[in-house]
Amino acid sequence: MKDFDYLDKKSVYLDSACQSLRPRPVLKALNDYYEKFNSCGERVKYPWGIETDRRVENTRKKVIKFLGLKQKDYFTSFTLNTTYGINLILNQLDGKQFKKVITSEIEHNSPFLATMSFAKKNNIPREVIKRNDDGSIVLDCDFAKAVVVVNCAANFDGRKLLNINELIKKVHKAGGIVIIDAAQAMAHSSEILRKTEPDAICFSAHKMYAPSLGVMVVRKDLLKKIETCFIGGGMVDDVDENSYLLSSESPEHLYTKFESGLQAWGEIIALGAAIDWLEKIPKSSKKQLEGNAKKLFDFLSSSEKVHLVNKEPNPTISFYVEGVDSHLLGAALGDKGIMARTGYFCAHYYLDKVCKYPPLIRFSLGYQTTDGDVEKVINILRKVIK
Question: What is 2-19+282-385's CATH number, 3.20.20.140, 3.90.1150.10, 3.40.50.150, 3.50.50.60?
Fold first, then answer.
């Protein structure tokens, strides 16, 4: 794809699940901010600042529109990453309103550890529930006044939370809330989130072809359950010696509830460019990504020495080769210009303790992945397997 023409032809980047590469329009949007109107948002009245405010506000709206949600029900706040967003909500959530916290077995450490902390802090039970092979969640659980924190796409094989709507409806009916970790869905599987209505969605822009940034899409009703304790500049309209007036008291500035201090204005603006870019991805590029994922999956599943985590093709594929140390293989692939992740990908509990896999290799493809890249990977792996 021409938008990744800066890539060295010898390099094969297969670590998009960690952070995706950035296409030319996103790089341009970021550089334009620093070169043309570098300014502090929401603090200045000169032209550069006005332009920053306009573009940042546009990005907030684009995020909600991209997810198929309604502006009247949700707002967008920005932070560091998915982990930070989940913790920011849980650490300010009024634990007295809930009876338990629930997560699932295939979670990234972001929600898995944060739910441990929430349970301990509020002295309530924590449950780890099962997920089916297709990613759907087992719903025979007591969700009464529960905080449910789960992903909608796994970071090691891409399996999706296919019954996300059923989960949300059941939890809400039982008086609970749902926080979705959407880090692995936004780039290639965002359709699963469209027109769902969780209480919050947290994701990382740097996994969806944008700069390093965290995003929180929060249902306005959730603020009734938040006790603000992480606070600072940019969040208040007035301050006395022993009191302050939060900016989030105004309906137009609800997002400030989670935005303390100076924000990454350039990165936010570039996220808006990434959303525009994703919405214009041609069907041919999507089919090429799906085709390359299937070709790699078919090759790996054809060998008895390769043990796949995936049950079906996905741009994110994890496996190990029998008799070969994955870390050594990852280093050897790196010497050939193939960049892939090794280990447990911050999903230690499920991959190590439940499945008892040895360290794995993860290939995570993106729109920059070419047919030639996949051929190169297959040719090298064929020699290793033999």
Answer: 3.90.1150.10
